[in-house]
UniProtKB/TrEMBL annotation, chain A:
The keyword Transport applies. NCBIfam families: 3a0107s01c2 (TIGR00972). PROSITE patterns: ABC_TRANSPORTER_1 (PS00211), ABC_TRANSPORTER_2 (PS50893). This is Phosphate import ATP-binding protein PstB. Residues 25-274 form the ABC transporter domain. Keywords: ATP-binding, Nucleotide-binding, Phosphate transport, Transport. GO terms for molecular function: ATP binding. Belongs to the ABC transporter superfamily. Coiled coil: none annotated. CDD domains: ABC_PstB_phosphate_transporter.
TrEMBL record, chain B:
CDD domains: TM_PBP2. It comes from Pseudovibrio japonicus. Residues 83-286 form the ABC transmembrane type-1 domain. The lineage of its organism: Bacteria, Pseudomonadati, Pseudomonadota, Alphaproteobacteria, Hyphomicrobiales. It comes from the Bacteria. Pfam families: BPD_transp_1. It is found in: Cell inner membrane; Cell membrane. This is Phosphate transport system permease protein PstA.
Amino acid sequence: MNMNASVARLNDSVGDETQRNEAEVAIDAKINSIYYGKFRAVRDSHVPIRKGEITGFIGPSGCGKSTVLRSLNRMNDLIPIFKMDGDVHFMGQDIYAPSIDPVLVRRHIGMVFQQPNPFAMSIYDNVAFGLRINRFKGDMDERVEGALRQAALWDEVKDKLKQSGLALSGGQQQRLCIARAVAPGPTVLLMDEPCSALDPIATRKIENLMHDLKEHYTVAIVTHNMQQAQRVADTTAFFSVDISDGQRCGHLVEMGRTNELFENPREELTRKYIRGEFS
Amino acid sequence: MAGMQNLEQTQVFNLARKPYNRDTLVNYIFTGTLFGVAVIGAIPLFSVLYMLITRGSSRLNWDLFTQLPPAGFMSGGGIGNAIVGTLVMIAIACLFSVPLGVMGGVLTGSLAPKSRTARTVRFIAKVMSGFPSILAGVFVYALLVVGLGTYSALAGGIALAILMLPIILLTSEQAVSMVPQRMKDAAFGMGCTHGQVVTKVVLPTAMPAILTGIMLSIARAAGESAPLLFTALFSNFWIRGLIEPTASLSILIYNFSGMPFPNQIELAWAGSLVLVLIVFAFNVLSRIIGRPRY
Amino acid sequence: MKSVMSGAKNDDEFSPSAPSFYDVLSDRGVRWIAFGAGGIVVFLGLYIIFEIASAASPAIKEYGLRFFVDTRWDVSRQEFGILAEIWGTLYSSLLALLIGGSFGVGIALFLSQGYLPNRLSQIFRLVVEMLAAIPSVVYGLWGIYVVIPALRPVAAWLHEYFGFIPLFSTSLSGPGLAPAVIVLSIMILPTVAAISQDAFAQVPQKVKEAAYGMGATRKQAILKVILPTASSGVMGAIVLGFGRALGETMALAMLIGNVNQVSLSLFAPAKTLASLLASNFPEAGQVELAALMYAALALLFITVVVNAIGAYIMSLSKKQEAI
C-alpha cells in the first residue's frame, strides 16, 4: 500500500465516509461561521468527532480551535454576542435547533477547562455536584468513588474527601475537574487545553489518564502542544487563521489520522506549521 | 462503575426542551421571582418620583424661591430661606471637610500609606463613616450649641462636615492611590521633592476622582436632616448671620410634613422636589467630573 | 529648539540646582499639612466618642445598667430607660433587613447574572442608585402620604382575620412599625444591592463556566455555586445594611409613631434610639439631656460593633479571593 493511497483512503474515512457511516461519529459539526457581534471568528469548518476516539484540535493562537470546541456543547451561549451559522449534530439532533435545551446538551457533553476550576466545596461535593443536579437516586458514594478512580485521583484523596477541592495541587485539581465532569456519565468529554496551567509531571498524568478515558467516552481536546496531540489523539484537526485587513478569521485546514497528518500532511500550511515555521 | 460504559450506550436521549421537566420549571419560577423582585424594588422610586412631580410641581414657581415660609393658616409663601440656608450650610461644611479630607487622603493614599499614622487615620475614618448621622448632631450640640448658647448655621455646617469628612477622605485616598507609581517615579527621578510630587503630579492626576468624591459627599449632606435637627434648628426668616438658628430644606420638609394645613403640606412636597433635584444635580455632577480625561 | 539644544551642552547659565529654601519649605509644608489633617481626623473621631460619653456621664452614674432594662421614659419623674427603644431599633432593623436584604440580593443577582441585556441592566443600576440618593425626609413624607394610606386597609383586614397572630394584634391607626419598616427596607436595599453586586462580580468566570458546563440550569448555578462562592461578601453586605438601618433617623421619626412600648405587632407604634433622639432632643432639660446622651452612646456602640462585624466579614471575602 503506497503512502498516497493510504492518505486518500484515510481522508475519505474522516470526511465523507463518516457521514455515510453515522454510527461512527459522535458529534458532527458543520460550522459555516461563528460571529462575535460583527466579527467573524471562525469560517467554513466541518469537524466530525469520531466515537470512542480522542480528537485533537491544534493550530496557532487565535485560530478558533477553542471557539469551535466550546460550540460543541453550547458553552458559547454564555457570551451574549455569540452567533453561529451552521449545525452541530449530536445523537441525531441538531443541538442548535430552537427546540433543544442547551442545559440538557451540556449534561450529555461534559467539559474540562483550561484553568482547573473546582468549586469552593469539598472534594466529595465537587464530584457529586453533577449527580445532585441530575437528581441521582442511586449509591452516591459508589458513583463518586468510581468517578475519582476514573480520574486516577482516588488513591490520593480517598482519606480527605471532606477537604476543600481548592486545597489540592493544580494537577490534582484538574483531575478533580475531570472526575466531576465524568461523574454524571456524559457521552462526550470536551477538554479545552486541560494541561496548559500544569507542570510536565501533572501533564503526563493527565495524558495517561486520557487513554483510559477513551475506553468510556468520546473525547475532543484542544491543545497548543503538537507533541501532546501526537501522544494522545487518534485523529487531529489542524486549524489556521487568515488575517485580512486586521480581521482574524480561523478555519479548519485539514483533519486526518494523527500519524498521517503529522507525517504526510496534505496542505502546505499544515506542513509549515508542523515544521514550526509559524505559530 | 455500572452505567459508565457510555460508548455502548444505545439509548438515544432526546435533547429537546421539556417545559414540564422539574428543573426547567423550577428555573422558570426562579427567573420569574427575580424579575418580580426587581420590578417591585423599582416601584418605590417611581412612586416617589411621581408624587414629587404631581404634588411638588404645582408650587414650582418664582414665589417658591423668593418668599418666606407661611405661618399657620396663611396661604402662599415659599421656601427661599430654607434653600439659602441649605446652600450656606453645605458651603460651611465644605470649608471644613474638603481640605481636611483631601489632605488626609493624600497622607493615607500617597505620602505614607503603610505607616501606623495612616492606618490609624484610615481606621478612624472608616469608623466615622459608619456613625449614624444623628450622632453628628448630638456631638455638635454638646460642643457648639451648648458652647455658643444658640442654634446656628455654623453648628449645622460643622455637623454636616463631620458626615462628609470620612467620605471625602476615603474617596480621596482611593483616588490618590490610583495614581500609577511610574508617574511618581518619573517626578522623583527628575529631582522633585516629595511635596512637589504631591502638588504637581499626584493631586492634579487624581483631581477628577477627588472631585467626584466631594460631589457625592455634598449630595449626601444636602439631603441630611438628622444632624441639623438640633444644631441649626429652623427659622422662618432670611439668614442674617452664621450664629443664629437657620432654616434648611430638609428640616422644613420635616416640620411641614406633620402640619394639618394643606398649604404647608404642598410646600413640603415642593421642597422635596427641590431637594431631590439638588441631590440629583450633585450626583450627576460627580459622574461628569469623574469621567476620565486622558 | 536650537538654543535649547546648545543650552544643554555648554550654556552654563542654567544647571540643576539644589532645592531652594522655598522648595524645602513647601515640601515640609505639604507633609505637615497632611499629617496635621490626619491628626485632626483621628482626634475628631475620638473626641466625638469622648464628648458624647462625658455628656452622658451624669446619666451613666445615675442609672447605670438599669438604663437598658427600663422601658420608662418619664421626664416628670426623671425615670429613664431605653429597653423599648432598643427593642424598636432591633425589631424594625431586623424586619427591614429581612425585606430589604432579600430584595437587595435578588436585585443584585438579577443585574449581575445575565438576565438582562447590558444596556437595560445599566438603566436598572441607575434606578437603584437613585433609590439610594433620595433623602431620608423625602422618604418620610412619601411614607406619610403614600405608604400609610395604602397600608391601612391591608392592616385592617389582616387585623380582623388574623388578629390572633401577635404580628397583627393591633390595627394601624396611622404611624406605626409596618410603614416604618417598609420605608427602611427601601432605604437599605441599595446598600445591600450594591455591595452584593460587587461580591457576585468577584466570582471568577471559570467557576461559573464550570457550573454551566456541568449542565446546571441558571437557577442551579446561582443557588449551588455562585451564591455560596460569594457568600461572605453577601453576608458582609447584609450586615452593613443592618448597620445603616440601625442609625436611620428621620424617616423613622416621621413614620414609627414614637410611642415607647415593647410590642410584636407590626401595626403598633414604636420608637427607636435614633427617633428618640430626634424627637426629644430639642426640648430636653438638663437631666433628660444626659439620659439622651447615654442613649446616643448606646446607639454609637451598637452601630460600631455591627459595622465592625460587617467589615470583618468583608475582609474575609477579600482574603478568600486572594487564595
